[in-house]
């Protein structure tokens, strides 16, 4: 019989999540008693004695806990796959989501174990979880927790846009619920934004592709003053479930020589909020740029520091470079890397924060640095 420690949770403990509501401490003790130095288990319960579907496994040594995690992670107990990870003693780190990434556009076949395999080369993975509905079907998004923020940023840089089973992954830093906008999975919407299709694609063609998901109330391809397609448009469904299914199924699908991008159409306020969030703290101001440097060369130069969202050299009305520009990175650590690696070279670089964002939504240059600074 496993011995229960007399004081709190011991140092070498595993968190066990996604438990079936009927799983008890006695059952966990039986399952894990074959591992040397196993001490006890705890199933967390509410004030009425109902299982909270998670708990702790306590071991005398870290080696035993590690072996149990490697052997039993993502295995079923009472028909439900459990999730094991090291117990995080620092509640502040858990609340802030340090080392966590959010991933979406997952294929139906990707479960917790496969998600772990996809991200394992980016750093030490502590936990993986694919969100599922009540009937066990994937919601096509999930979470990966690493042992460090460095590994999390490495995963974002390497795997964002990486195709798995024909679908391009979207990988970004995890944002606590109280700090993020309403996600597509939480929102009810009928209107989709569709882009990255060739100019010869017609509204009839898009209607043929999207109507299999439900009744379309309107469909529009945006065109210029000459009536030429701009390569993007909107598809509005009668039913929110049809829109969600169409988004999940059509995003990443190849049409001709291009890959479609399909997302929920955002309101103006949402786009402004996203623009502010995207530019806050991850833009870099650069000056002393040579007159002959173009935007593509500018982008390529800074890509050594991380994933560049945009790179733009400011020009006058004649198209002549003003000698300064802006680089937007996918994360603050990447922007800081640009400062560290390139700040001592001919270019002058500086991080742009929210107070530098002008009324147009574009960054404004910081105040000039005095010569005697």
TrEMBL record:
Superkingdom, natural source: Eukaryota
Q: Which GO terms describe its molecular function?
A: RNA binding
| RRM domain: residues covered | 12-89, 99-176, 190-267, 282-356
UniProt cross-references to Pfam families, sorted A to Z: RRM_1
Q: Which Gene3D superfamilies match?
A: 3.30.70.330
The yes or no answer to whether the keyword Chaperone is present is no
The protein's matches in SUPFAM superfamilies, at most eight in alphabetical order, are given as: RNA-binding domain, RBD
A GO CC annotation given for this chain: nucleus
Q: Which InterPro entries match?
A: Nucleotide-bd_a/b_plait_sf (IPR012677), RBD_domain_sf (IPR035979), RRM_dom (IPR000504)
Q: What is its main location?
A: cytoplasm
Cellular localization per UniProt: Cytoplasm; Nucleus
Q: Which UniProt keyword terms apply here? A: Cytoplasm, Nucleus, Repeat, RNA-binding
Sequence similarity: Belongs to the polyadenylate-binding protein type-1 family.
So what does this one do? Binds the poly(A) tail of mRNA. Appears to be an important mediator of the multiple roles of the poly(A) tail in mRNA biogenesis, stability and translation.
Name of the protein this chain belongs to: RNA recognition motif domain
């Amino acid at each position: 019989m496993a011995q229960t420690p007399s004081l709190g949770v011991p140092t070498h403990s595993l968190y066990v999540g996604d438990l079936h509501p009927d799983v008890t401490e006695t059952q966990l003790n039986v399952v894990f008693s074959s591992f040397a130095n196993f001490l006890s288990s705890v199933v967390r319960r509410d004030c009425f004695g109902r299982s909270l579907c998670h708990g702790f496994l306590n071991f005398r040594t870290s080696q035993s806990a590690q072996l149990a995690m490697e052997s039993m992670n993502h295995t079923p107990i009472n028909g439900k796959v459990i999730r094991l990870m090291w117990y995080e003693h620092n509640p502040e780190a858990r609340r802030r989501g340090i080392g966590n990434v959010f991933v979406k556009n997952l294929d139906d076949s990707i479960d917790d174990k496969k998600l772990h395999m996809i991200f394992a080369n980016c750093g030490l993975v502590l936990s993986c979880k694919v969100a599922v509905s009540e009937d066990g079907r994937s919601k096509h998004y999930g979470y990966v927790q690493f042992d460090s923020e460095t590994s999390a940023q490495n995963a974002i840089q390497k795997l964002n846009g990486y195709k798995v089973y024909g679908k391009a992954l979207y990988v970004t830093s995890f944002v606590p619920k109280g700090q993020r906008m309403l996600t597509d999975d939480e929102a009810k919407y009928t209107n989709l934004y569709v882009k990255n299709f060739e100019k010869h694609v017609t509204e009839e063609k898009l209607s043929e592709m999207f109507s299999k998901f439900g009744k379309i109330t309107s469909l529009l391809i945006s065109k210029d003053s000459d009536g030429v397609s701009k390569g993007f448009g909107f598809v509005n469904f009668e039913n929110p479930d049809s829109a969600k299914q169409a988004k999940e199924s059509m995003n990443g699908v190849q049409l001709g020589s291009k890959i479609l991008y399909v997302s929920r159409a955002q309101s103006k306020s949402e786009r402004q909020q996203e623009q502010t969030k995207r530019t806050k703290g991850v833009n870099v101001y650069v000056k002393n740029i040579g007159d002959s440097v173009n935007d593509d060369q500018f982008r390529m130069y800074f890509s050594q520091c991380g994933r560049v969202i945009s790179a733009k050299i400011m020009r006058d009305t004649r198209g002549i470079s003003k000698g300064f520009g802006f680089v937007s990175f996918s994360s603050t650590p990447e922007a800081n890397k640009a400062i560290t690696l390139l700040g001592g070279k001919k270019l002058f670089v500086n991080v742009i924060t929210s107070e530098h964002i002008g009324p147009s939504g574009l960054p404004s240059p910081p105040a000039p640095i005095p010569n005697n600074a």
